[in-house]
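Here is one chain, start to finish.
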Amino acid sequence: MLALLAGCASLPGPVEREEDLMVPVTGDSALDQTISDFLAPYPNQSAAHFLKDGLDAFAARLTAADRAGRSIDAQYYLFHDDVTGGLYAESLLRAAKRGVKVRLLLDDMGAHRRDAFLLALDHHPNFDIRIFNPFANRKMRALEYLYRFGLVTRRMHNKSMVVDGVVAITGGRNIGDDYFDASPKSNFIDLDVMVFGPAVDQVAKQFDEYWNSPLSYEIASLAKQDVAPGDVLSQWQALHDEALRQSDSVYLQRVEQTAFLEHIKAATLPVSVGPTIVLADQPQKVREPLYDDSTHLAPDLWPYFRQAKSELIILNPYFIPSDGGVQVLADAARRGCRVVVLTNSLAANDVAAVHGHYAKYRKPLIKAGVELYELRADREMPEIDETDLVAVSDHISLHVKTFVFDRQKTFIGSLNLDARSVYQNTELGVIVEDSKMAGQIAELALNNLSKLAYHVQLDEDGRMTWTGWSRDDQEEITLYKEPDAGFWRKTVAWISRIMPVESQL
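Its structure:
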């Protein structure tokens, strides 16, 4: 009956296809020469530049796409149909038109109801699109959760962009306005890293593995429709026209004034040089038994947590540590390591159900000596005038997935510390071994905790408290209830907490 309700939808059968790999680096493109000159003082070493600002992160992607001479390989979990999504798509299409080979790999969560648009892009001979672990039913996918649960619920959460095989960007950001400080309603605090040198080969290799996986399907084989040539040209023209309309927008004015572009123009981009290790789940993780970690990145990451000696900083939005994770952090605190965790408050969290299960671990963490902070969503934005180019939104939420170990090594990636990321979805991240970068990110986080977050503690009676500054920053206040969260949000979190769904969060 479920199959009938789903329209008897099924995925296309296996197709014989040749392995398709990244275009080899030839060394003769303009970008090749730029990166070669840039890395000349650091032979055989990787370099990294972290992108803490959404504007910088978007500028980096557009700049990389505009300078591509050979190939662009982009891989994302979400790809929104909004201003930045359109501008990014247009930059990829523009590259394809000038002869660059573009490969776009999306998880099917990022392709929902966008088949016609993706088909139009895929229609260009230099633009290929594949969908990872797709839903067979392209319109009523919710039904597949009933009869393919455990298959369609496991997703590709990786985010990467590799340009000409010499530059890569990876981290926590998907493609959409709220990841690039472009949304007036809500923006994410997030972090990416741009890497150069040997580490790029590792990011490119994991892209090729996903691209050539049997779980990746050509969009043309999935879509239950076709796009007429006239409609293709109309879609391309619409992208171009919208990009022209945005060319003098306040948002792109802000992008053009970013520190990143200033550094690019002056050839002064600050970088960290040192070993850079890429950690990636294998694509078949989504088909293997949940607790078989042979395809997981986690076994290579956990030793960094267990070996931290003086300081461990965890910045993570969807933080459900489990009893085992609490024990690891408690052990670190017992051996004299300062452990600081910043995650979302209930009001800042965009998934209230996650907060419900995280809340179970707050008291054990605090009792173990962990310093626990929750991002506030109530901070008033400063007054601005019409000429000011500061981003304004009604709500902020943490989306950073970064860990700093002893201010020596930094993980930046897509991994949340919850069961979904660790066991179900695929993830990607890099560890940069550089004390300068680690120190900068640590200071950036710790110096802003009192402004952006509540310090969650226990009082003498064991009650949970949230301490922070008043909205006018004139006095320190202590609250005894979940701050700034409404009745329904609290209700959803509470209901989730008593339901056995932690493994799905």
